[in-house]
Amino acid sequence: MANSIVVNNLCVKRDGNPIILDLSFEIRKGSIAGILGPSGSGKTTIFRAIVGVQEITSGKITVLGKPAGSKDLRNRIGYLTQSASIYADLTVSENLRYFSKILGTSEISVDEIIDLVDLGKNIKQLASTLSGGERARLALATALLGKPDVIILDEPTVGLDPLLRIELWKVFRLLGEQGKTLLLSSHSMDEADLCDSLVLLREGKILAQGSPAQLKSETGETQMESVFISLVKKP
Amino acid sequence: MNISRIWATARRVLSQLRHDPRTIALMIVAPIFLMTILKYVYFNQPQTFQRVAGSLLGVFPMLVMFLITSVATLRERTTGTLERLLILPLTKLEFILGYAKAFGIAALIQAIIVSSIAMGPLGLKIAGSQFVFILVAILDALLGMALGLFVSSFAKTEFQAVQFMPAILLPQLLLSGLLVPRASMPRLLEIISNFLPLTYAVDATRKVISGGEGFGQDLFLIAIFLVALLGFGAASLKRKTK
């Protein structure tokens, strides 16, 4: 199976208003794919549809060969929500241990994840007292627990300092090399360059898709920023 | 159904409570404080104290768990943790049983402390056994939890959730026979009170305190309400939303 995620003609309407319009794309197994677009373009709605918590109007989504939301997928998808869905009144370690118990993963893997996101010195701290960056890393850690095959990350590097961002991208790369499929969203155009494939989104429609190199050569631009602008301006 | 996931959820809920010592203190101190006030309000009418305080002992766990559950589950909905959990292998039933276990344990501790103080320093006489009394208090607490879980699905904010207490619980309290014996209420109200769970919570507590028989039937009815409300509560946990 070459594709981990296949989205066919996805439409989502909320209260009659179209949010996603006839969207189709595929994401190759073991790749890092990015969905880019301004806020309100439908990125989070697509992610929610892929993890199976979004009511969709029409279309079909297949994840790891199974319909999105299937029971079999529940311990195979890691999902980082945009606003950290963690328990503010629990410590870092209590949060991670709870999610790992639900997933049925071992204590060792919790320690590995804590090292990976560099929260070793915060394990006894209440999540509500963490800084923005630390909270984002804790949320990321909960998404990586249990070694899921597909990892959906809604703006994983927002509010993180550049050094940590580089470190996290190394982690993403490593996960990709292990055969994991990553789908992430970002506002940052320099992160777009780090993805294997991109879906550029605007007002619920696909503006363009392809690898960063393809998109650059199609538009004749050298920077992702200008690629996006030239695609938006294209009649 | 996976027992370890239920336990993990119960432990998580109790850890959250543990990090909030003020709430724990209020859960224990508030009922004792109210009992003490009642004791002195009815200082010259010890019989009335027996009747009212006894019934209220069954109502406290219900009120407290109703409030805590409605706010806690609403928070799970609004912060996205519920949605996050339902994507994982946790089932709705496991989630609810985890909460029931945690709040059952909290109610057990509350009932032991509050009933001991009421029976000791405050001089409340329980003709039945304290053990049965605590059992009734736990069932009442679980009933409050189930009601809280159920109404939290109708609330969008914590303000709304808290307002459900006067809207849902106080009318039941007025009709439960706590203030006026149910038989002396207008017929229509008496009929309505037959369909309200709190009626049976108050009845059972009163029967245990006065040493009367027949609380088994009340407990049975409370259990039926409990299962039905938990069922509605489970149905209100939606995996998919707009």
Topology:
The complex is a heterodimer of chains A (235) and B (242).
Chain A: E1 3-14, E2 17-28, E3 32-36, H1 43-51, E4 58-63, E5 66-67, E6 77-80, H2 92-103, H3 107-116, H4 132-144, E7 150-154, H5 162-177, E8 181-186, H6 189-192, E9 197-202, E10 205-210, H7 212-219, H8 224-233
Parallel strand pairs in A: 3-8, 3-9, 6-7, 7-8
Antiparallel strand pairs in A: 1-2, 1-4, 4-5, 9-10
Helix pairs in contact in A: 7-8
Chain B: H1 3-18, H2 21-41, H3 46-78, H4 81-87, H5 92-119, H6 130-152, H7 158-175, H8 187-193, H9 197-210, H10 215-236
Distance between the termini of chain B: 28 Å
Order of helices and strands of chain A: EEEHEEEHHHEHEHEEHH
Report the major sheet of chain B: none
Please tally the helical runs of chain B, counting DSSP H or I stretches of 4 or more residues.
10
Give the radius of gyration of chain A: 18 Å
Number of strands of chain B: 0
Task: Look at the structure and give the mean pLDDT of chain A.
Answer: 90
Q: Would you kindly provide a written description of the structure presented here, covering whatever features stand out?
A:
The complex is a heterodimer of chains A (235) and B (242). Chain A is of the alpha/beta class and 235 residues long. Chain A contains eight helices and ten strands. Chain A has a domain at 86-147. The termini of chain A are far apart. The mean pLDDT of chain A is 90. By secondary structure, chain B is mainly alpha-helical. Chain B is built from ten helices and no strands. Chain B has helices spanning 3-18, 21-41, 46-78, 81-87, 92-119, 130-152, 158-175, 187-193, 197-210, 215-236. In chain B, helix 3 (46-78) runs antiparallel to helix 7 (158-175) and helix 6 runs antiparallel to helix 9 (197-210). Chain B is globular and about 60 Å long. Chain B starts with a helix and ends in a 6-residue tail after the last helix. The chains are: A alpha/beta (235), B mainly alpha (242). Chain A binds chain B through residues 14-15, 51-55, 69, 74-75, 77, 79, 81, 83, 85-91, 94, 98-99, 101-104, 126, 142, and chain B through 4-5, 8-9, 11-12, 15-16, 19-20, 79-81, 83-90, 239-242.
